[in-house]
């Protein structure tokens, strides 16, 4: 199974699909409108003499109902904005992040509305919000750090949904970036010796990215990684013929998109401020002497990181089949040597 670049997870697709669903959208907006109307109507009902018994709480009830009406109105606006975002042609991962950011912003504004109406003036509201923030800062240090980590991920972009990454000791494909944590679909790990999905999900707090290195194997500018296959032959093999045969067999197993990306990688590397970096003829073969007096053949090629295991398997079978066709030109190390 494979996660495509910038592809949303099933949960994210379901959320975006709901936003496209006109019936769901209309029902949500209708519920918010009814809630706003009920709050406004309740303010007039409270003015009736029958409710005089609440006395000093009359003003508090009015403020709460008015804040509720404003919050429902803001929720309607937020829902409309989310619907427009979902209909854009942006990448699915970016659409999901924008929708999450809109929801978070709406929640923050609603909280501030209630605090404002519960206080006599803006200055008192600001002081109250400051004191609450200070108390929450001490009590919720890790969640707040994770929320800041979420902002960092969204703005700085060390990885996006669909990228294959390593954060600390965690390896996986990013399937969800939430306000407080990130979820990876693990590849390799303790259950697998290859880079195929292990079937486990890894969820870690976003604050972890401030404490560990982040390796992105699916960087947008260079979405490919180097990979290699090695095997051993004897000294009496025709090394030039082996090199050409191995390269030809490897090229036949690589798709056209990978071949085209080699030129793009050359251009990217030529622009960076590091000298003496050069991509040689692709794919290329290195020879080196093994400690047991064998010749190690090292085939080096570029591959999509999410297809490296499958591609390596196809290349190994193709290379072995091609070399075995000419036993007079190449001889392998004896079994058990």
TrEMBL record:
<comment type="similarity">
    <text>Belongs to the MscS (TC 1.A.23) family.</text>
</comment>
<dbReference type="GO" id="GO:0016020">
    <property type="term" value="C:membrane"/>
</dbReference>
<keyword id="KW-1133">Transmembrane helix</keyword>
<feature type="domain" description="Mechanosensitive ion channel MscS">
    <location>
        <begin position="143"/>
        <end position="218"/>
    </location>
</feature>
<feature type="transmembrane region" description="Helical">
    <location>
        <begin position="63"/>
        <end position="82"/>
    </location>
</feature>
<feature type="transmembrane region" description="Helical">
    <location>
        <begin position="29"/>
        <end position="51"/>
    </location>
</feature>
<dbReference type="InterPro" id="IPR010920">
    <property type="entry name" value="LSM_dom_sf"/>
</dbReference>
<dbReference type="InterPro" id="IPR011014">
    <property type="entry name" value="MscS_channel_TM-2"/>
</dbReference>
<dbReference type="InterPro" id="IPR023408">
    <property type="entry name" value="MscS_beta-dom_sf"/>
</dbReference>
<feature type="transmembrane region" description="Helical">
    <location>
        <begin position="94"/>
        <end position="118"/>
    </location>
</feature>
<dbReference type="Pfam" id="PF00924">
    <property type="entry name" value="MS_channel_2nd"/>
</dbReference>
<keyword id="KW-0472">Membrane</keyword>
<protein>
    <submittedName>
        <fullName>Mechanosensitive ion channel</fullName>
    </submittedName>
</protein>
<dbReference type="GO" id="GO:0008381">
    <property type="term" value="F:mechanosensitive monoatomic ion channel activity"/>
</dbReference>
<keyword id="KW-0812">Transmembrane</keyword>
<dbReference type="InterPro" id="IPR006685">
    <property type="entry name" value="MscS_channel_2nd"/>
</dbReference>
<dbReference type="InterPro" id="IPR045275">
    <property type="entry name" value="MscS_archaea/bacteria_type"/>
</dbReference>
<feature type="transmembrane region" description="Helical">
    <location>
        <begin position="130"/>
        <end position="155"/>
    </location>
</feature>
